[in-house]
Amino acid sequence: xxxxxxxxxxxxxxxxxxxxxxxxxxxxxxxxxxxxxxxxxxxxxxxxxxxxxxxxxxxxxxxxxxxxxxxxxxxxxxxxxxxxxxxxxxxxxxxxxxxxxxxxxxxxxxxxxxxxxxxxxxxxxxxxxxxxxxxxxxxxxxxxxxxxxxxxxxxxxxxxxxxxxxxxxxxxxxxxxxxxxxxxxxxxxxxxxxxxxxxxxxxxxxxxxxxxxxxxxxxxxxxxxxxxxxxxxxxxxxxxxxxxxxxxxxxxxxxxxxxxxxxxxxxx
Length: 268
Fold this sequence. Notes:
Strands 5-4-3-2-1-9-8-7-6 form a nine-stranded parallel sheet. It is globular. The chain is an alpha/beta fold. Helix 5 packs across helix 6. It contains twelve helices and nine strands. The protein has one domain: TIM Barrel (Alpha-Beta Barrel), CATH 3.20.20. It has helices spanning 3-13, 30-42, 62-73, 78-91, 103-109, 111-120, 137-145, 160-169, 194-202, 217-225, 235-243, 249-260, and strands at residues 18-24, 47-51, 97-101, 125-128, 149-150, 153-154, 174-177, 208-211, 230-233. The longest helix has 14 residues, at 78-91. One of its GO terms (molecular function) is tryptophan synthase activity.
């Protein structure tokens, strides 16, 4: 069993959903980024999703874009990010950690080299956000060669035939978007995912995890009640990291509150 399988099995036994936290690696700097990763894990995040700073993150809203810009201005590189992840893995051997990135970053390094570096750093999954399912096969195959889960995106308007392909090719978890648009807390999530979750289950897809606009414990409860196996909160966490750079107290408190909302899920 990989770390995602173990995590979902453990949470199902406790009737809990998964809470995932997203941060941008290298924001505000490499040293603090390592502290932030530890704080998220120690405060109760079941899984981490991280970004590598990139100049054109088309799926990300203004908060995460600003975090990427701050890291880029400090000269943070993909190699630095793999170093951060390797250190995190040494300190937290059980928590799944995945990368959300873009095709240009992967291809600039070389697809084989990128996935090899990720595997050496202890990365569990890679989601390449701007690669559609019809073009995903080379990324999926390279991920499999390095024992990395290829995480794929599904939405309420994804055609049935595409959902079948996503279900067969995806591993770890299925990233389900809570609404149209980009990441951020400015627009409310739109929960009409019953048919999507049902279709993914029928096709044997990895567990559905809801992202985009997840920023309150009420959002967590609503997502789990709708049938999600977990949630990922990004912009809300990144905002707190930016505002609370020194003590991280607000970030820790937020993670604890969001994780607490995953308990006793009726769909577990």
